[in-house]
Amino acid sequence: xxxxxxxxxxxxxxxxxxxxxxxxxxxxxxxxxxxxxxxxxxxxxxxxxxxxxxxxxxxxxxxxxxxxxxxxxxxxxxxxxxxxxxxxxxxxxxxxxxxxxxxxxxxxxxxxxxxxxxxxxxxxxxxxxxxxxxxxxxxxxxxxxxxxxxxxxxx
Length: 155
Hints:
The protein contains 1 helix and 5 strands. The protein has one helix spanning 64-126, and strands at residues 7-9, 31-35, 41-45, 135-141, 148-154. β2 (31-35) and β3 form a beta hairpin. The termini are far apart. Mean pLDDT is 80; it is low at 12-18.
């Protein structure tokens, strides 16, 4: 700053005012007792200290994650839009495919029920002239670990 040729003192009981008729409460704001280089004390306006200027904000660099996110956002949005357009074009084919799959499921269910019924009907028609076959089996064994013998009779 700049140097002054005077000394600023405050009014206390040790320093009487230059004008004994003036009380310290009567001194207007911004006026102080000043001692000049010759030793003379007088009242004077003193420059007010300006409040310090607020600090200037410094621009911060953009973090790498923010740059990456900013670059990926339009890409992801474009991908979602392309998928939506693709689904709108594919919708009629997907509907037809789902109907074809339901028809295939119905065919498989009908085959699972119908084929055994047809086989049973075919067996009954082919064996209508013959009687049913009876098999009798007799098994005998002697002792706990003895060899078992058996006979099978067809009628």
